Amino acid sequence: MSKVLYSSISQKFIMALAGLFLITFLPVHLGINLLLLNSDPEPFNRAAKFMSDFPVIKIMEIVLFAAIMIHIIYGILLQIQNWIARPVRYKKSNRSETAPFSRFMIWTGGIIFIFLIIHFFNFYFIKLGLVEGDPYNFYDVAWQLFTNPLINIIYWVSFILLGFHLYHAFHSAFQTIGLNHRIWTPLIKGVAFIYAVIIPAGFSLIPLYIWIVSS
Amino acid sequence: MKITLDIWRQKSRNEKGRFVRYELEEVSPEMSFLEMLDLLNTNLIKRGEDPVAFDHDCREGICGTCGMYVNGHPHGPVKSITTCHLSMREFKDGDTITVEPFRARSFPVIKDLVIDRMSLEHIQVAGGFISVKTGSAPEANTIPVPKKNADEAFDAASCIGCGACVAACKNASAMLFLSAKVSQMALLPHGKPEAKQRAREMVAAMDDMGFGRCSNTGACEAKCPKNIKITNIARLNREYYKAY
């Protein structure tokens, strides 16, 4: 039984499940963020308060952090094993047949992780009292933050890379959990593409809108 | 045709290797890639030099022996063929061709372009069989097999174990090879009794051999000379989950 916990397929299965959970989280986050486009701060602040106070959400927050950590740890673990598996590299290598975004998953993932830390400093750590700011008025925090063009650029670049990561992650996770079908797999790839465009575009729209309106 | 070859030379397992350039004239476009290497070796022997060691056997694309990495591709730039079927027509006069062994920790170089592929053998031995009494062949229609399953099992069974999937994969993963070996059994009634044990043991053997992990990049499928599909990898994953 111990073999199953350490096997390559199990490691990938766990990483895929954690990833799929994170994929379901993003639209929820985006849905709330879109309230920032409203000129009235009340709906967004109420949603933010609900997300930080509602007990079920509090439990889900723990699950979310666990999923992030599991996804990162297994991702790094698998990548190290992959690097070790080819100690001598090719002199002339052609990667044209390798799915383009699959080649950079560890790097896009790493940048998303750095972005996550910046994002926590901008918002989540205010809630925890680690960073100065009003935890009851995240609407103003966001509107103030995104007047800074540098922050906007960091967010946009991160979202583009998130899109690259999501496209491969979405359909790859289905293959890993064993779902590959003549009809469904092309459909999943199509949905993955739409998801990987819409989610980052939605997230990017908010800082862009705030920046344009403020300036 | 005049061809320049940039070939990996390595005297033995433990010695360091390096690329050596050879100029080769009088290469005919009608030659196969291996015949071109034969010509190079004839010249080297005439000059009193050590010929380039490379694996080959049937030269008909069915034995899986002749694996080498030609100009950035396992088995060369042409799809769905082995190195022995690669023709010199695919190259132009004056071309430089880089020839390397398949690179993977699980495929140590024995000499020059010859690699040790026993790691694939170990995976096969771990469970790539069915335990039945052999002897006279039973009546073929005793066990009905759906046509679709028979076709898919046959496609999986066409894997020649050359290791091109490992060579093509950025992670040096053997999942396509293993998935073919598991699928050819999993799709047929004969393979069912030992299905769980097979999936468990063969995956464990693959991990023990130090292959990389599958990232679903699809490079293996694109470079497989026998067109083994990555749908087999999804099937292998399912077989593995069912085994626990």
Describe the structure.
The complex is a heterodimer of chains A (215) and B (244). Chain A is built from 8 helices and no strands. Chain A has one domain (2-87, 101-214): 3 helical TM bundles of succinate and fumarate reductases (Up-down Bundle), CATH 1.20.1300.10. The mean pLDDT of chain A is 93. Chain A has helices at 2-6, 8-33, 41-53, 55-85, 105-128, 138-145, 149-176, 184-214. The longest helix of chain A has 31 residues, at 55-85. Helix content of chain B is 34%, strand content 11%. Chain B has 8 helices and 7 strands; from the N terminus they run E-E-H-E-E-E-E-E-H-H-H-H-H-H-H. Chain B has helices spanning 33-46, 118-127, 147-157, 164-168, 175-186, 195-208, 219-223, 231-242; strands at residues 3-9, 18-24, 69-70, 73-74, 96-100, 109-111, 114-115. In chain B, a hairpin with a 2-residue loop joins strand 3 and strand 4 (73-74). The longest helix of chain B is centred in the first third of the chain and has 14 residues, at 33-46. The interface between A and B is large, with 42 and 47 residues.
CATH superfamily of chain A: Fumarate reductase/succinate dehydrogenase, transmembrane subunit
CATH level-four homologous superfamily name of the largest domain in chain B: Alpha-helical ferredoxin
Taking all Cα atoms into account, the compactness measure Rg of chain A is 19 Å
Relative strand content of chain B: 5-15%
Order of helices and strands of chain A: HHHHHHHH
Shape of chain A: globular
Number of strands of chain A: 0
Low-pLDDT segments, ≥5 res of chain A: none
Whole-Å distance between the termini of chain A? 61 Å
Question: How do the helices and strands follow one another from N- to C-terminus of chain B?
Answer: EEHEEEEEHHHHHHH
**SS summary, helix count of chain A:** 8
What can be said about the biggest beta sheet of chain A?
none
The largest sheet of chain B has its strands arranged as 2-1-5-3-4
CATH topology category name of the largest domain in chain B: Fumarate Reductase Iron-sulfur Protein, Chain B, domain 2
